[in-house]
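Quick illustration, no need to memorize.
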Amino acid sequence: MNPVKPPLEIPDPLTAGFRSYQRVQTPRTGRVLARWLAVLGVLVVLAGFLPWTQNIRSYGKLTTLRPQDRPQNVPSTIAGRIASWRVREGQRVQQGDTLVVITEIKEKYFDPQLLERTREQLEAKISALEQNEGKTAALGNQQQALRTGLAVSLSKARNKVAQSRLKVSSEEATLRAAENDFAIAREQLDRQEELYRQGLKSLTELEGRRLKFQQSRAKLQEEQNTLDQARQEQTNAGLELASLQAEYQDKLAKSESDRRSAVAYQFDSEGQIAKLRNELANLSIRAGYYAIRAPQDGYVVRALKQGIGEMVKEGEAVVTVLPIAPELAAELYVQPMDIPLLSVGREVRLQFDGWPALVFSGWPGSSFGTFGGRVAVIDNVDSQGQYRVLVTPDPDLEPWPAPLRVGSGVYGWALLDDVPIWFELWRQLNGFPPNFEGVPTSAHQNKDKVVKPAAGQDDAY
């Protein structure tokens, strides 16, 4: 095809003779450029009325929604020395699998028979407690026997006091009879001496009467001595009754002291038994800590300790385990001025590092390589001047790529309202916040659907 020739210009007869006038005319190229610029300006003006989706942009990294799905450092509960490794980095393990075996470094636990010896100590202490319980029961029986013996002895002593009292009464009556006999013998002796002086009685009869008088006096003295002895026996019986009570009280007090000592030893033994049982339980549990086990199914990411024989402190991390199939979430950080515009369930578009994408932030429908998500958690407290937001996959849109790993970077923008482009440019130039009506609009698919957090999760940490 032949190119179209421009129309011929008809020269003006008035200016045709002036060469300088012809040289100052507008070049044809300039007119074409002006027309193109005019058309372009019209297009720009028209484009300013095209819809533009306002958004909040932020950058973060991939994490997990549930804390138990995040990489976990497995610590050693006790201090020890690494004896052997049972896994290698990158290996898949199941819950309860042995990761590392350690040995003791504290001299208190060096004895390999420590658990058995502690059990023997516990059994010996229990046997001693049983014997002490028998001793306590025997002391109780002894006290009962002492009380019974005290009652019998007191009864006997009281009977003896009563008998001595009766004997004293009897001896007093005998003494009164002897005193009467002595008085009669004295009177008879006096009369006999008077008759002897008168010559009526012989000396032999007088001497006989004197002999009877002396016998009566001796009898009186004997009865007096017998009465004094009976009274002394009565006093001794009373003293014996009083001392018997004190004697048995001393024996009962000593027996009660022994019984209380036995009871105190029993309580002390029970405390030592409880302590030994606690120590035995601790040793049994400690023996299970020599093998550091996987807390859940996952992959061994990194060994934080190397080699054999390296020391491990109490609570020191030994290996890092990543759980299998974690529930991924994008951890984004938003400026405080934008946080009121977000709510749980707000739609978010995400671009992952290492995943090819063509992004038009204002036209999410025209973007390529981005993935949908919804806000699941909004922190109530800022972190270094920004607020953390967790975004989970949108169940109604395409799933996130399977090769994604925890810790990789992610770029996201939360979709807000639709506005003209000129309004967005004007807002950006003035630094105004985006439009916000309080709830997600219906301009985007399923914007009004709220994503419920996983079980056990709140709206914000």
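The longest helix spans residues 203-288.
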